[in-house]
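Blinded run. Sample ID left blank on purpose so nobody reads anything into the name before looking at the predicted structure. Input follows.
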Amino acid sequence: MQTVSQLVPLRSAVDTLRQDGPLALVPTMGALHEGHLTLVREARRQAAHVAVSIFVNPRQFGANEDLDAYPRQLARDSALLEAEGVSLLWAPTVEAMYPAGYATNIAVEGVSAGLCGAARPGHFDGVATVVCKLFNQVRPDLALFGEKDWQQLAVIRRMARDLDLTRPVVDRIVGVPTVREADGLAMSSRNAYLTADQRAQAACLPRATRAAITAMQGGATYAAALAALKADLLAGGFASIDYAEVRGADSIALQQGPGDEPGRLFVAARIGSTRLIDNLPV
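Blinded prediction complete.
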């Protein structure tokens, strides 16, 4: 596996890899877990070579968020990726990604509104900006993202369509189903922040979310099912709830009941100082 941290050697490495066939990109912020490795394995099934980026993007963290505390484990992550047969690790410095004088920001309207877009102002601008740069830097044939961050996936797809990146820069943006722990909790780098007691309580999140979906499918109103979901989370040990809403899977528009567009139930809640998110189809 070749590891590069500057743009000129990255372009040379990418040009060489693309001679063998399709190149897949898996963008990450590191602190890799089985969810990330599932993306890598799916990428290997679909492409001749896999490139993984590791970059803790400061532009998607708010002023009071965990940028400084976010785990950075490059040596460990590199060993995991090499064992999975990754061809290229793109690990740019902040200065390489955002050179002195950098002044461009990408804002994607509509799909970035509400949910994490409301709870974390500016977050999706940072995501769209860095992913656009990654697409232009690596020029993959396909890029893979986890469905746990469904709103992020919707933002990236809209950004790529609107900026004409889907061809020839990246032909396909692939969503890969959420990888879960045995108790149903979605795998996340932030799960490492949980104490043992908090980790046990966190299993309430997927359990209560599924119960709400079962209630909706059984005829309960969305309002009643969501109220019960919130009560279950607070009773289960969560300190607060950022949101629990049903939104359109593609538009991310708020849904008050069944409609023409498939819906997904999105939840974000805090346990201790850790914010956990999840989503499932209704």
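Unblinding after everyone has recorded impressions. Strands lie at 2-4, 23-28, 49-54, 88-90, 142-146, 172-176, 240-248, 263-271, 274-281.
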